[in-house]
Amino acid sequence: MKFKQLLLPGLFSVFLFSCVSSKKFKTMQAEAQARYDSLNSVYAKQGGDLKNCNDQNADLNSKKNSLQSQVDDLTKQNAFLKENSTQALKQLQDMSVISSTQAESIRKSMENMGAKDAYIQTLQQAIAHKDSLNMALVMNLKGAVGNLDDKDINIKVDKGVVYIDISDKLLFKSGRYQVTEQAKEVLGKVAQVLKNQPDIEFMVEGHTDNVGFSNGVLLDNWDLSVKRATSVVRILQNQYGLPPSHMTAAGRSEYLPVQSNDTPEGRAANRRTRIVILPQLDQFFKLLEPKKG
User: What's the burial of 17, exposed, middle or buried (CB within 10 Å: 0-12/13-18/19+)?
Assistant: First the structure.
């Protein structure tokens, strides 16, 4: 009897300990599974981002190879024409068809052609360099902004110019020009990338739809578009330290739509603020200056 009294409490303790350990194990197992699922989701997203980058890189390499092939063909054709021209000139001179003075004049013209060819190649190299910088800038901007809805922010290169389009839904409340707190965070990310390019100059453009607007202080869409542009410029200057000498504020009102104003979706697309990275024309014109010496 005493043995049974001692045995039953002992068995009860072992059973209770076993239940507690099993519950704790299941809890730990659930937590580990949740962490695994979270890490797997992050891994899948990063894998998708890497694939997109690889696809873009492959496309750029393909275009580069195609352009290089065209340059090589043109170079061969140019060399062939020069060689034939030189031989023809020598034959004409030997046959006394043209005088020595005329031959010298033709020779100088051919030398000028060579100088122009070198000049064209320099321009091509400068344009290719600028295109590479623009593409790097776009990738940096997209990386800084993150996974925002493309309807709210769109970053692209068009004809060698970088554009950042931000919808008014993200930046402003309807009919207002005060920048929202959420938009300030986005502008801060854009500003950080622009600050890393100290020579960049840009224009902030306000755009509206064609719906008439007036609130007493603002007379029309012209006023609204300008005030929205200057609001963004002030934040970039005062909160994020971008130099005011590198910024321009402009209002385009309703007169540069990207879609038709006949539908609500089109009007929503037209209500936007655009940051335009201005091309550095002074550097381009320096290439056009004649070389000294």
Answer: exposed
pLDDT along the chain (293 residues), means of 10: 50 50 76 80 74 73 75 76 66 54 69 63 61 72 68 82 89 90 89 86 94 86 96 96 95 95 93 87 55 54
Q: Please count the structural domains in the chain.
A: 2
Instruction: Mark which of 89, 110, 135 sits at the end of a domain.
Output: 135
Query: Does pTM surpass 0.90?
Result: no
Q: Which among 210, 214, 240, 239 is positioned nearest to 227, based on CA atoms?
A: 214
66 within domain boundaries: yes
Domain around 224: 139-285
Backbone φ and ψ of 187, nearest 5°:
-60, -35
The DSSP line for 90-154 is HHHHHTTSS-HHHHHHHHHHHHHHHHHHHHHHHHHHHHHHHHHHHHHHHHHHHHHH-S--TTTEE
Last residue of a domain, one of 135, 168, 196: 135
